[in-house]
Specification:
- This protein has 577 residues and is an alpha/beta fold.
- It folds into 4 domains: 6-174, Rossmann fold, CATH 3.40.50.300; 244-357, Zinc Finger, Delta Prime, domain 3, CATH 1.20.272.10; 430-532, GMP Synthetase, Chain A, domain 3 (2-Layer Sandwich), CATH 3.30.300; 536-567.
- It contains 29 helices and 12 strands.
- A 5-stranded parallel beta sheet has the order 2-3-4-1-5, covered by helices on one side. The protein has a 3-stranded mixed beta sheet with strand order 10-11-12.
- Strand 3, helix 6 (133-144) and strand 4 form a beta-alpha-beta unit.
- The protein is elongated, with a radius of gyration of 42 Å.
Length: 577
């Protein structure tokens, strides 16, 4: 008898043998037992998960001479014919090679005939997404209202390519990827049955490479048995599948962790000389980083999935932190999809590992030319949080002593009653600097201030946004004093590069070299000359007196309105002589 592949020998013949798809098998069995059969089913899912096997088992269960039953007997003539593919009533059609409208029209003409031996005629259409649009349209009416003796089973790995009108006419069953543990147990059963000695790590590697597909796992097992004979070791599996050894992968991770580009490039050169492809190296490196993460965060899961280290690299999981592994994985996963599209994959792989060594993508490249502004905003947010925390704490403190305008007089005021500008004071101004101020220079700066702001707005919007809160209040031959009403604006303009940009624009506009010095409005009011410190009430009073002297019997209503605006209606009394 000719040799048969393992995936054909061990193909499921009963629902109980269909591992990893319990909810599908139970639903189909209940439908058969309760005689609630649909006229069309859609089996979708990854390759090698049992879609076609489930379709053939279902065809045997509904046509079994002992049935319909939850499980086919596999002994009667009809079950044996379906198993051997010789039944006249069960048709397996490959839509990839029979995708045209003519094939579907031929199928549509044959469905009206009654089955020859079985109860139902079952049409199994594999890879149904390969049918053309015309073929789908020809199938629609038959699929919606087939004869009572016909059952359609459509199988596909890409259900998103099917027309919604096709999906709506079928009962859909989604086949899931088979779990790692289930595949390993199946491989162990096959090896034990065939008296093949094996290492657990070898089966773990096969199950991981299969990626949830049982047929792929059995094909890989068949291939490694042919190479290694009756002993299945991890080295044999890695040699057959072209998988890089774990020791080399751990050395690469160690080189990335230690930021040793020489070691990284040397290991890559050695792996390339051994015939390893760049995409395979990157794939294995990603899974090795994942294994280390599992060992650090979920040791039980790591043990079940065989994520174990070799003795020569024991302790690497304690050297590389979880945060570092996450950063390396993030960088490698971003580059992995692009590897197959570059003209020189080896150079791309080298650059990818060197980038992972430096912590991934450059932050300056990610956030563009506004990186400094963003960093400055983060600092200001942290400062604001501290200021708010201090203000909240100080609101419950005892009253504080605050200096008044006269240095010999003090006033005890509760902190919560102080204006914000008094609590958050700016820099102090020296008397020597104030003595050098010039009203003429100040007037010149004030006249050009709008031009200065306009230039800043066009050159750097962020600098303009911080400076617009302030205004010039005094000017010397070398210094422009700017008063601000909020502390965060004042502090920001004092920092570089903002300070340098402001001084440059001011100097260019005024054709004279100036430096800036910032101060809070509250402090500026304290250091103004006495004649400039006249309060608003005094100014209003002077205006009222002058008006009275000018016209004793009449009072200008505008002055009264200004007084009411400043002091409030309750505090203003109008008296006539």
């Amino acid at each position: 008898m000719s040799y048969r592949a393992l995936y054909r020998v061990w193909r499921s013949q009963r629902f109980e043998d269909l591992v990893g798809q319990e909810y599908v098998t139970r639903t189909l069995q209940n439908a058969i037992v309760e005689q609630q059969l649909s006229h069309a089913y859609l089996f979708s899912g990854p390759r090698g998960t049992g879609k076609t096997s489930a379709a053939k088992i279902f065809a045997k269960a509904v046509n079994c001479e002992s049935g319909p039953a939850a499980e086919p007997c596999n002994q009667c003539a009809i079950c044996r014919q379906i198993t051997d593919g010789a039944s006249m009533d069960v048709f397996e059609m490959d839509a990839a090679s029979n995708r045209g409208v003519d094939e579907i029209r031929d199928l549509r003409d044959k469905v009206k005939y009654a089955p020859t031996e079985a109860r139902f005629k079952v049409y199994i259409i594999d890879e149904v997404h390969m049918l053309t649009t015309e073929a789908f349209n020809a199938l629609l009416k038959t699929l919606e209202e087939p004869p009572p003796h016909v059952i359609f089973i459509l199988a596909t790995t890409e259900p998103h390519k099917l027309l919604p009108t096709i999906i709506s006419r079928c009962q859909r069953f989604s086949f899931r990827r088979i779990s790692f543990e289930v595949i390993v147990k199946r491989l162990q059963l096959i090896c034990d049955t065939n008296q093949i000695r094996y290492e657990d790590q070898a089966l773990f590697t096969l199950a991981r490479t299969a990626d949830g597909g049982m047929r792929d796992a059995l094909s890989l097992l068949d291939q490694t048995i042919a190479f290694g004979g009756e002993v299945l070791t991890e080295e044999v599996v890695r040699s057959v599948l072209g998988i890089v050894s774990k020791e080399m992968m751990y050395q690469l991770i160690q080189g990335i962790h230690e930021r040793n580009p020489g070691l990284i490039l040397q290991l890559l050169d050695q792996l390339s000389a051994e015939g390893n492809e760049p995409d395979r190296i990157l794939y294995d490196l990603v899974y090795t980083c994942r294994d280390l993460l599992l060992i650090q965060t979920a040791p039980k899961v790591a043990k079940l999935q065989g994520a174990e280290q070799n003795g020569s690299t024991a302790g690497l999981e304690t050297k590389v932190t979880t945060k570092q592994l996450q950063a390396i994985l993030d960088s490698l996963l971003q580059d992995q999809p692009h590897l197959k599209h570059v003209s020189n994959p080896r150079i791309f792989l080298e650059m990818s590992l060197l980038k992972a060594m430096n912590g991934g993508a450059s932050s300056d490249r990610d956030i563009g030319p506004f990186s400094q502004e963003i960093q400055m905003l983060h600092q200001k947010i942290a400062q604001l949080e501290k200021i708010v925390e201090r203000l909240v704490q100080s609101s419950h403190d005892e009253p504080q002593v605050v200096e008044g305008r006269d240095s010999q007089q003090v006033e005890v005021v509760p902190r919560q009653s102080l204006p914000r500008a008094t609590v958050q004071r700016g820099k102090k101004l020296s008397p020597e600097l104030l003595a050098k101020t010039s009203p003429t220079a100040l007037q010149k700066v004030q006249q050009s201030w709008s031009d200065i702001l306009h230039k800043l707005r066009n050159e750097r919007m962020a600098v303009y946004a911080w400076l617009v809160n302030g205004e010039p209040v005094a000017v010397t031959d070398q210094v422009v004093i700017l008063a601000f009403r909020t502390e965060i604006h004042r502090e920001t303009t004092e920092r570089q590069p903002y300070r340098g940009i402001i001084e440059r624009v001011i100097s260019q506009t005024l054709q004279h070299t100036y430096q800036i010095q910032t101060v809070m409005w509250s402090d500026w009011e304290l250091v103004q000359p006495k004649e400039e410190q006249k309060s608003s009430s005094e100014m209003v009073e002077d205006r009222v007196v002058s008006k009275r002297q000018e016209s004793p019997n009449q009072m200008d209503s505008s002055i009264v309105d200004q007084a009411i605006t400043i002091f409030g209606k309750d505090l203003v009394q109008i008296k006539k002589d």
